[in-house]
Design goal:
Blueprint: E1 3-9, H1 16-20, H2 22-29, E2 33-39, E3 52-53, E4 63-64, H3 66-79, E5 85-95, H4 98-105, E6 109-114, E7 119-120, H5 122-127, E8 131-134, H6 144-155, H7 171-174, E9 188-189, E10 192-193, H8 203-221, H9 223-241
Parallel strand pairs: 1-2, 1-6, 4-7, 5-6, 5-8
Antiparallel strand pairs: 3-4, 9-10
The structure holds adenine.
């Protein structure tokens, strides 16, 4: 059964190219994902299409109102079962990781709520959202690009989404390591040569070299990931020996 994804947004058109190209486009065409876009403005309570208002207590910017968002979620939920998780895209959310992507890929339905303006009325967070997700410690002008990031990362994990020549590179993230360096033809380009080991045909040596390179690169660029790996290794050892942490 296709993963159903509902996107609630004020800018449905932002998703046009994204949903028709590359791996996501193919997944849509092949029925692996079924994406429905809903314009929150349709649920405005006045004839001007107002969906935002000034914040109580003053301050800059506008705040997305409860009612149109709540009505939009209720309307899409009525369209079909299952109810699905409502995921709010916000910089205050749980940081997106390959592990979280894996969790989301196991759902049958995702309802992605992309806000604009200064933010959401707090009651949307507390009473409507099942989860808040952030794609990083920076602020974008809306949740649309983060919603695309979630859809892209989730889609490539669905069985059949990748062709046989497209490898799920996230394997390396699952191992807690960054990807090793890759090369293709030509063997020498402007004096820059491919490492000899990759031309050796010795699969064992190639595998060892790649693991070593992945470790070096991760240690240099992401000491935080290396520290987490060490912690995991320690935890596993403690579990085996029965030692307490
Ligand atoms: N909306 C604005 N910035 C965001 C971010 N970094 N992650 C998720 N949603 C957002």
């Amino acid at each position: 059964m296709a993963l159903r994804i509902d996107i609630l947004t004020l800018f449905c058109e932002m998703f046009d190219g994204f949903l028709s190209a590359s791996i996501v486009g193919r997944a849509v065409r092949n029925g692996l994902i079924e994406v429905h876009r809903t314009d929150i403005r349709q649920f405005a309570t006045d004839t001007y299409g107002t969906v935002d208002d000034k914040p109580y207590g003053g301050g800059p910017g506008m705040v997305l109102m409860c009612r149109p968002v709540l009505d939009a979620v209720e309307a899409v939920r009525k369209q079909t079962e299952p109810q699905g998780k409502v995921i709010l895209l916000t910089p205050q959310g749980r940081p997106l990781s390959q592990a979280l992507v894996g969790e989301l890929a196991g759902e049958q339905r995702l309802i992605l709520l992309a806000g604009h303006y200064e933010g959401f009325d707090e009651r949307i967070r507390t009473h409507l959202a099942d989860m808040e997700v952030s794609i990083g410690d920076f602020v974008l002008s809306g949740g649309e690009v983060p919603a695309m990031v979630v859809i892209d990362a989730v889609t490539r994990l669905l069985p059949g989404a990748l062709g046989k020549d497209e490898s799920p590179v996230e394997e390396s993230f699952a191992d807690g390591l960054l990807e090793y360096p890759q090369y293709t033809r030509p063997q020498t380009f402007r004096g820059l040569s491919v490492p000899d080991v990759l031309l050796s045909g010795d699969h064992r040596r190639i595998a060892d070299w790649r693991t070593e390179q992945a470790r070096l690169r991760t240690a240099q660029r992401r000491p935080d990931m290396m520290a987490r790996n060490r912690q995991r290794g320690d935890d596993r050892e403690n579990e085996q020996t029965g030692a307490s942490p």
